[in-house]
């Protein structure tokens, strides 16, 4: 199905001490594809997401981005990370900088844009996530949902080829989850390549091209969302879905 | 009071000597401490090892011993400098170990996610440390660095034993001139208080300015 692979993981393995967190992971994400990773906690889905921009190192296997293997360290790794945006569960906005400066910082430091150009682009993006009027506030003055939308704008400011979402709504109050999901839905519609670790089954159903189900460090199922949710193949997935979809 | 008025120029010389030692050694300690703290959190193993050795050796050596090592040791390797410069080197290096650890504890108070976010945007180690981590660490290290520099001001008295002009050393001359030992020391203490309270005040201002905004 994926004709033009952007992210490829081949036979990836990782341990935390004795714990084998990623076992022989093979995953291909095509350009413009939205892949949602779900699974019980401790199944390795966040770790998998973080290996793609090497916030977690791997012990064996290869990860290719746009056909090139991930560099180990240094300038090339930094250059690659600039191409892959990341949105974290805990937002991780720079606490000592204003919202505008948060979005502009890496544009200036990494993309070497001038401050005015960067700020202009930042304001466009803040407008896009509906926060143009919050530009001069500090992150602590915003709600969780607003902070996460700023974090998405910050990632978009680098013009990334792909975006990684590591449980972007798990730290949010229920009423703020939708405002973040709406921004993500919109990105998906615009054709952004996205890897999303989430517990939001509604989002997986409506926005994903594929759903990857992980358990105990392995990819158990990798299918279209409708097929997965209506008729999961594995016992493990049926068990998982029965637990979360019941109420 | 007589002691002070009659020997004002001697006191003033000593006072200025201590101020100079404190200022120059503080600058050296801050620069080196900053460098070593960066080393200790660097992704390169040999840098981390160097930083660790630096801190371990300097922090665990008695300052007097360090003065002996610098003032008597370095000339043996052909490095001959004025004693004042040697004293600044000894004091600065010694204090840098404490500054380094204060900075490092500050770096550890910054949530890991801040650095991860910066790196995930493609910022280099230096950019991450300089624009994201240290500015936030700075806020929590103002008080301990103030204490460390106050300790430095008082430690500078050891330089007097190596014939560097400084405040405490003035007591020898005054004692020989037959002045009351108590009043001699009272005025010396006042001199130190002026210096240390100035440092305190400076750091209070810094803390008010940068310490709370979060």
UniProtKB/TrEMBL annotation, chain A:
<keyword id="KW-1003">Cell membrane</keyword>
<dbReference type="InterPro" id="IPR050086">
    <property type="entry name" value="MetN_ABC_transporter-like"/>
</dbReference>
<comment type="similarity">
    <text>Belongs to the ABC transporter superfamily.</text>
</comment>
<dbReference type="GO" id="GO:0005524">
    <property type="term" value="F:ATP binding"/>
</dbReference>
<keyword id="KW-0067">ATP-binding</keyword>
<keyword id="KW-0547">Nucleotide-binding</keyword>
<dbReference type="InterPro" id="IPR017871">
    <property type="entry name" value="ABC_transporter-like_CS"/>
</dbReference>
<keyword id="KW-0472">Membrane</keyword>
<keyword id="KW-0813">Transport</keyword>
<dbReference type="InterPro" id="IPR027417">
    <property type="entry name" value="P-loop_NTPase"/>
</dbReference>
<feature type="domain" description="ABC transporter">
    <location>
        <begin position="7"/>
        <end position="241"/>
    </location>
</feature>
<keyword id="KW-0029">Amino-acid transport</keyword>
<dbReference type="Pfam" id="PF00005">
    <property type="entry name" value="ABC_tran"/>
</dbReference>
<dbReference type="InterPro" id="IPR030679">
    <property type="entry name" value="ABC_ATPase_HisP-typ"/>
</dbReference>
<protein>
    <submittedName>
        <fullName>Amino acid ABC transporter ATP-binding protein</fullName>
    </submittedName>
</protein>
<dbReference type="InterPro" id="IPR003439">
    <property type="entry name" value="ABC_transporter-like_ATP-bd"/>
</dbReference>
<dbReference type="InterPro" id="IPR003593">
    <property type="entry name" value="AAA+_ATPase"/>
</dbReference>
UniProtKB/TrEMBL annotation, chain B:
<dbReference type="InterPro" id="IPR043429">
    <property type="entry name" value="ArtM/GltK/GlnP/TcyL/YhdX-like"/>
</dbReference>
<feature type="transmembrane region" description="Helical">
    <location>
        <begin position="181"/>
        <end position="206"/>
    </location>
</feature>
<protein>
    <submittedName>
        <fullName>Amino acid ABC transporter permease</fullName>
    </submittedName>
</protein>
<comment type="similarity">
    <text>Belongs to the binding-protein-dependent transport system permease family. HisMQ subfamily.</text>
</comment>
<dbReference type="Pfam" id="PF00528">
    <property type="entry name" value="BPD_transp_1"/>
</dbReference>
<keyword id="KW-1133">Transmembrane helix</keyword>
<keyword id="KW-0029">Amino-acid transport</keyword>
<feature type="domain" description="ABC transmembrane type-1">
    <location>
        <begin position="15"/>
        <end position="203"/>
    </location>
</feature>
<dbReference type="InterPro" id="IPR000515">
    <property type="entry name" value="MetI-like"/>
</dbReference>
<feature type="transmembrane region" description="Helical">
    <location>
        <begin position="53"/>
        <end position="74"/>
    </location>
</feature>
<feature type="transmembrane region" description="Helical">
    <location>
        <begin position="21"/>
        <end position="41"/>
    </location>
</feature>
<keyword id="KW-0472">Membrane</keyword>
<keyword id="KW-1003">Cell membrane</keyword>
<dbReference type="InterPro" id="IPR010065">
    <property type="entry name" value="AA_ABC_transptr_permease_3TM"/>
</dbReference>
<dbReference type="InterPro" id="IPR035906">
    <property type="entry name" value="MetI-like_sf"/>
</dbReference>
<feature type="transmembrane region" description="Helical">
    <location>
        <begin position="80"/>
        <end position="100"/>
    </location>
</feature>
<keyword id="KW-0813">Transport</keyword>
<keyword id="KW-0812">Transmembrane</keyword>
